[in-house]
Amino acid sequence: MSEPDTVGGRSVMPLRMADGARADLLLFSPPGTPRAALLWVPALGVAARHYEPLAQALADLGVAVGIHEWRGHGSSDQRADRRSNWGYRTLLTDDLPTSLSALAKAFPGVGLCVGGHSLGGQLSTLLASVTDLDLQGIILVASGAPYWRRFHPWVGLAYIAAPVLARLVGRLPGRQIGFGGNEARGVISDWARSGRTGRYAARGMAADLEAALQGQRAPVLALRLRDDWLGPETSLAFLLDKMPRAPRRTEVIGPDELAGAKADHFAWMKMPAPIASRIHDWLSATTS
């Protein structure tokens, strides 16, 4: 881990994972002592830089943010192909813990939180369930478990077709099919398994993720977008119910908070101030 290169309140911290892979952690520091430090995990296939407006809005409200970079995207030096593959095990035991540890070192003594968008939110809950670090909260935006029974029945076909396509091509060609980016077949295999069975597991990882979720106690803020068919209420409830010991607060964002724009899975990213405000208010009440 190198020293961050800082410009204003934004800095770039180069990280090296245990297996030698490299990626940058984008840090946004508020003036003064932060109320909390949030590790933010993007949606599948979305590079970290696309969440800079959200991170800056949070920093302006006094919350420090570190934006994690997915392996295989953006600043990551890895790209998925037939010879380069990884799954949830690598993300949960190497990449995400490295980012979380770096954020904790960048803001010592500040309460740590994790959160994310879509699949990034799911992985945040899994990270919170297996990390040894003390976490103050989990923040989910447009997220929920992918179990097919919580969606339209045809969604289940994606959990059969996507892994087959990824094996044939050597990676999921997400840019071509309009879902995610170019994704490692191991990630798609683990994602599809959770979609088919409703249970989280990581191939090659000994931890029982379902049992870990049952014991997760950090409070959760879940922000659902009203018009988001990719993150319906049923999917979010299914994920939250996996953490029965965690206090939860669920709120719905509508078009009236997004200048009339449709409150769907991605539109909020262009105007993240209302999301940042909700997160700040919840953190103020939770960490006070």
**Could you state the oligomeric state of the chains shown?**
single chain
Spatial gap, N to C terminus: 31 Å
**For the CA atoms, what is the radius of gyration?**
18 Å
Largest beta-sheet details: 9 strands, mixed
Specify the CATH class: Alpha Beta
Shape: globular
Please list the strands of the largest sheet in the order they lie side by side.
1-2-3-5-4-6-7-10-11
Q: Number of folding domains? A: 1
Fraction of helical residues? 25-40%
- Structural class per helix/strand content? alpha/beta
Question: What does the secondary structure layout of this molecule look like, with pairings?
Answer:
Layout (H helix, E strand, L loop, with lengths): L4 E3 L2 E7 L5 E7 L7 E6 L10 H9 L2 E5 L20 H19 L5 E6 L1 H12 L4 E7 L13 H15 L2 E2 H4 L4 E2 L1 H13 L11 H6 L5 E6 L7 H8 L7 E6 L19 H14 L2
